[in-house]
Amino acid sequence: LAVAGVRIHNRCARVIAASATVSNIGDISCWLGEHGEGGITVGSVPAKTLVFGDEYRPVPLSKTVLGFECNAAYYKFQRNLDFKLPGIINTHCPGSPTLVFCATRGAAQDTCRFLARNIGQLSHRPMPLHLTTPFTNQLLNESTPLGVAFHHAGLSAGDRSRVEQLFLSKSISILCYAGRGYEEYASSDVLQFIGRAGRPQFGASGKAIVLTETRQVGFYRCLVAGQETLESR
Prior knowledge:
Rossmann fold, nucleotide-binding, P-loop_NTPase, hydrolase, ATP-dependent DNA helicase MER3, 2 domains, hydrolase activity
C-alpha cells in the first residue's frame, strides 16, 4: 500500500528495495514492475533485480537445524535445551565466540547461569577474566569472569555497554541474548540472527545452529535454505 500510495502521488518516483532475507525476490520484482518514461509501469515487465548469494558473504556460513521432542510446557522445553548446549557448543563452535538467542530475559539469565556453573563441560574453556570494576548486576559479576554473560533491555545502560564491549573484544566467549517472549521468532528475526554468525571480526567462518521442536525441523530447514516465500497479507 505504501508503494502504491507513493506512485499515485508521484508517478515518476523510483522505488529501491533492499532485503537480506527475502527468498522469492522474483515475485517482489514483478510486483514492483519496471517503470518507463513518465513513471508509467511497463506491462508485466519486472523491476531490475540484483541478487547476491552466499558466495558474496565476507566469510562462509554454515546452517544446521536440530530438532528435539517437546513433551512439556514451552518454558520447560527451553530449560531442557540448556542441558544440550555444552555438547552443541563443543561439536559446532569450540573456542569460538557464541551468541545464544533465548526466548525471554529470564531465560537468558537462566541459560547464562547454567553455562557458567557447567563451564567445565566445555572442551575449550574461556580464558578467566579479571573484573577491575564490578557490574551492577550480580549474576554478571559471577558469570563474566568465567567467560559467559547475558544481555537484555532490563540491564542498566552501563552494564549492557560493558557486556557488548567485552564480547566484541573476545574477552567473553558466550553471550546469551533475550528475545521478546515465549513465542516462535518471526522468520525475518531468525534470518537476521543467522546473519550475525558470519562476521569476519569473529573468525574465518560462521555457524548458525537452530534448536527447535522436532515438528518444526522441516520449516526451519526450508527457511535457512532460502526456500520460504514472502507473501502479502
